[in-house]
Amino acid sequence: MKLKNKLVLISVAGLTAVGLLAGGITYALFQNNVSNANNAFTAGSLQISTVRGDVPNVGPMFYTNTTGAPGTLPTGVWAPGDSNTRGLFLENTGSLDAKLKSITAKTADRSGNEVTSGLVYDADIAFANHANLIVWQLNWFDAKNATFPTGPITGGDMDLIMYMVNDGYNLWAAGNPNADPLKNPNASDQAVIAVNKYLLDNINTIRSAASVKGPVYQTATVQVTKMYETPMKGTVNQVLDVSSFKVITPPFGAEMLAFTVSFNLDTGNDMQGASGYFNFNTYWEQSKNN
Fold first, then answer.
1. What is the DSSP string of 225-258?
2. Whole-angstrom Cα distance, residue 240 to residue 230?
3. Is residue 13 in a domain?
4. Can you tell me the distance from the alpha carbon of 86 to that of 105, in angstroms, rounded to the nearest whole number?
5. 25 is a domain residue
6. Domain assignment of residue 19, yes or no
7. Nearest partner of 274 among 127, 130, 128, 131, judged by Cα
8. Residues 6+ apart with CB under 8 A from 211
9. pLDDT digits over 94-107, tens only?
10. Which positions of the chain have pLDDT values less than 70?
11. What is the Cα 255 distance to its own chain's centre?
12. Which of 64, 65, 97, 98 shows the shortest CA–CA distance to 78?
């Protein structure tokens, strides 16, 4: 509406100027109209899906057992010192390039309904106070050509990758008990290097299935390109800015993030039998003009 008003004002100013130049004399003007019809303006869509096409039942990343929960990789009950890594597959099903801006974990109940108070909320916060969260950015990596090709990923590949990231980090942490990636950027860099080495040593034979249409990367492995470690309480109901990951996904493209949740070794008896529930949310914006 503001634009329309502005155009009208410009038009009036133009007519006034013509009148002054003509000295008030009225002229007959030759006129002709040319139309360029059927102009269409369609806004692009921004839509991110977490559904992998090769997995018939898609459930939460983390769950204790398979009773009543879709999936095949339960964590089992947690003990102090445990850590588990699960993957979040993110596909751009819209028509605009999408840029990942932030991640947050929302307190929830057993059914995934967000809660902001009450006993369930208190239990969620208690778990978050005793846990750490690591977010990893993962990419296919062509070691021969030192490039990051875009290739399909199967559910089986993804699950194996999550195990390897988890095991690689745990081995590094056990060998460096005094290192603190939360406070020391050098320790964070060392952890990334160690996990990448573990990935290279253990899953360098992962490649796209021959039955999948598209290129098959015979030299492909998976490489961690970024990591962000934080106490989980700093993510729960708050915004974790991951724009530094510079994740920009084109339409029909996909990204893979890994989430490692660690239960602190010094957790006390007050957490015995307690459960915590969270919804992990990713926030995206259009990349164009932003």
1. EEEEEEEGGGTBTS-EE-GGG--EE-TT-EEEEE
2. 9
3. no
4. 15
5. no
6. no
7. 127
8. none
9. 888 888 888 888 88
10. 1-60, 62-63, 65-74, 140-157, 203-221
11. 7
12. 64
| Structure tokens that stand for 271 in this block | 């957490």
- Three-state SS letters, 25-58: CCCCCCCCCCCCCCCCCCCCCCCEECCCCCCCCC
Q: What is the pLDDT of residue 116?
A: 92
Domain range spanning residue 231?
Answer: 49-286
Q: What is the pLDDT of residue 100?
A: 87
Residue 62 maps to a domain = yes
Count of the separate structural domains present in the chain: 1
Q: Could you identify the residue written with the tokens 């839509």?
A: 47
pLDDT tens digits, 53-101 = 444 445 567 667 655 544 456 677 888 888 888 877 777 888 888 888 8
Is the separation of the CB atoms in 99 and 290 below 8 Å?
Answer: yes
| Strands in 22-152 per DSSP E | 48-49, 83-92, 98-107, 131-142
